[in-house]
Amino acid sequence: MPASISVHSDHSIDRISENIYGHFAEHLGRCIYGGVWVGEDDDRVPTEDGIRMDTVELLQDLDMPVLRWPGGCFADDYHWEDGVGPREDRPKRRNLWWAQGREERFIETNEFGTDEFLELCQMIDTDPYLAVNVGSATPEEALDWIEYCNSDADTDLTRRRAENGHEEPYDVTYWGIGNENWGCGGRFAPDEYADQYRRFANYLNGFDDHINPGSTEFIACGHITDEWNEAFFERLDGGMEFGPGTFLGMGSPYKLLDHFSVHRYYQAGDDADFSDEQHYRLFARAQKIADDIDSAAETISTYVPREDVGIIVDEWGTWHPQATPDNGLEQANTVRDALAAAGVFDIMHERADVVSMANIAQTVNVLQCLVQTDEENAWATPTYQVFDLYQNHSGNTAVEANINADKKYFDEEDHDVPLVSASASVGDDELFVTASNRSLDQTETVEVEVDETFGNPSGTVLFEEKGSRAYSTADNAAEFEADDITVSEADDGRFTVDIPASSVVGVTFTK
Ligand code: AHR
């Protein structure tokens, strides 16, 4: 059966937040140290204030909307004051989570800290998202951090910021209150974390209220199980029966929660060496993000109008068996990973009414990175190209797209996988459709039906003839960039495009 995509441009879902194309960079392996920060004395790559500019240029070209830092698990054993001030005075500290017995990962040198991170965000014109230490620190430490970053009052901390070269506040909007607090972030029970969350958010929100109302947004750590999420929301009011959602609802002076986060990683077979069955199974596992979002949305809606609290998928992507703590969670990033990312974006577009942000793990060198580096080069992975293409949806209104395609069927553990994944959005006088053909070996002729006010299609394709197991290197990365593809007009609002096996297509229609 030939596949088809029927786009209903009058059936709007919601605006697609720019922030769903967000990133995550942790002090882990070579993500920050080596990938972003090489220090001022390194002359192997061009640097500015110790930051490697080849990585920065790739990230600048990507229009990255938001970057989460410093963890991950790292965050809940990190004390931000260790990383500010003259670099030669900064203490070396342990960090438990990415130590795993290996000396060089056990030691955090603190060369790269808050000011370096926020300068990086300014260089690449992205919004910072800071993850606060809840597991092993205090609300006072968190409050000091927000004051250091955002206050324009004359205080000891803002004077220190000025001495460190930053007179003006950074105005950081996004504050995550802990990370995976059911695990590395303190191993809290959900009701214990709700108590901690309320306590930390009370102080951070107090800063917001007194200093700069409405300028910050707070993110609670959720889980992919309903048990954790329900118990967290149940307890958030502290058992005081202030009324449903007192600490949640828009309009409440005590609104302590803006977003609720979930994480999802997946694998099937090895990074670049997988069976045909595993090729397809990876998409089935990535699709579980849809269930995670749907069940978190349902839980939230029990406690508060759903639009008051957005869902953030602030860690997602492939985590193959090759990525271990011993190699700094590095893995080959193939076309298969990139196809899985395209499918995840299709899922998020379809849920644009509830997803407020997403942050792929991780930006440079670690897990499903977008940029890889060696000592002299930085290059884009296939996943980078998917981000670049899909960001044309950014800020558009997601619209319904019904897909008719053959499926791969799995057992009960994994969902069936349609061989074509797609989504569509409407911007100013434009309709943008993305579609991927997940077949390992068959070109798929896809009929795209659009509202007849749209026409003049122009198409681009990623990964034509590369194959699912291909990955980029310093030498061949340009081969993974987009090419033009022909989109033919059939009749009255019907178009066809031959999507090559294991490739992704973007088609823009104009009025
Ligand atoms: O991204 C790697 C790790 O995965 C993060 O530190 C942690 O939050 C998650 O378990």
UniProtKB/TrEMBL annotation:
Pfam families: Alpha-L-AF_C, ASD1_dom. SUPFAM superfamilies: (Trans)glycosidases, Glycosyl hydrolase domain. Its EC number is 3.2.1.55. GO terms for molecular function: alpha-L-arabinofuranosidase activity. GO terms for biological process: L-arabinose metabolic process; polysaccharide catabolic process. InterPro entries: Alpha-L-AF_C, ASD1_cat, GH, Glyco_hydro_b. It catalyses: Hydrolysis of terminal non-reducing alpha-L-arabinofuranoside residues in alpha-L-arabinosides. Residues 314-503 form the Alpha-L-arabinofuranosidase C-terminal domain. Belongs to the glycosyl hydrolase 51 family. This is non-reducing end alpha-L-arabinofuranosidase. It comes from Haloarcula terrestris.
